[in-house]
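Review form for a predicted model. The reviewer records the input and the model, then writes brief findings.
Reviewer: anonymous (R2)
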Amino acid sequence: MNSLISESRGRPGDDPIFTINAAANARKAQGEPVINASLGALLDDDGSLSVMPTVFEAFQAVPAQQAAAYAPIAGDPPFLEAVRRDAFGSGSMFENSVAAATPGGTGALLNAMMNFLEPGQSIYTSSYYWSPYRIIAGHNRRGVETFPMFDGAGAGAFHLEAFEEGLVAQLRRQGRALVILNFPCHNPTGYTLDEKEWRGVAAALGRASEHGSVALVVDLAYAAFGTQSPSLWVDAMETVCDRVAVLAAWTASKSFAQYGARVGALVASIPDPAHRADVENAISYTCRGSWSNCNHLGLLAVSHLLTDEGLRARVAGEREALVSLLSERVDAFNTAAIARGLIYPRYEGGFFVSVFTPDATETARVAAVDGVYVVPMDGAVRVALCAVSSADVPRLVDAVSRGVDAANLSKDKAHA
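Model under review:
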């Protein structure tokens, strides 16, 4: 007799992306010249994981007795204040904010779903999204609804009209909405909203709030690797924060190149004091009912990195070097992809870019034959440029282009 409950049976043992990564690494271990563009971790050009020396110094400097002690359930107050300021700046959004520590950005997303949606309701996000959104939602009795991310065919602009239309429709059905937008440097497409688009999103959220309760989560996972000032989205959301709960899923995983430390936070800007206190209690309660408390070593070290001006400046310099490394790859990709006629969204920075194709599985299969591993999605393949040296970008683009050509040929034959 199977002791698992019915919904837990037959689940995959690993995330599909990690499965692709394992296949690529197996071939690489046999000496093949593999390009592994599957996993979202920033690598140096020699294939080693990019790290920030100052970050490790801060971790090593935490006294053992402090690191070994339990962290407060919601996180240490200096950490919470530091991440609130890092997310929202120093204006009214910061002054009206509360936060709770979470195990990475994933924990922040889970916390938001648990507290801003009823069981059985669905988050609202773009048609291209980080696939664990659906896993996190489904595991907690929530669903996912999407809107077409781009207007026009293929690499259009952000589809603001579809965003608002779908949001209003969802509010009419379920009475509330939790919108999750992963900008800047969207995973998986690489797209970043410009100032006009941020303003348009804010205006749409404000109008939609007339139909029900609206909360927005800005997933900041890759924001530190973009070219855009964080004040752009904050300034836009300040115009509607009296009608919309504005949340940020903050994480040290990418911005401090500390994927394994699992340090994050859910930050919420709520103008009304009574509502703000209620939100603070709710998100702390969820911490206790899930992971209890977070990695204290990580919280203390990251707090120090955010508040000590000398360390903060050193980290900024080390991060800028990594941003420059990534920007070289972005430039190389744009040059090669345009030359090959690939269709993909506007790409200015970030770990990923997506190339549109009529058959993503076929495109990924053909690329893998050439030793290039990318992640198939619905209508596109995701390319993790964060893990590909600039010198390897032309070969990667050639392999993906051949994959797209094969997918188009299969499509043409099917319609012949």
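Findings: The CA atoms of residues 67 and 297 lie 4 Å apart.
Further findings: The chain has a mean pLDDT of 95.
Recommendation: see findings above.
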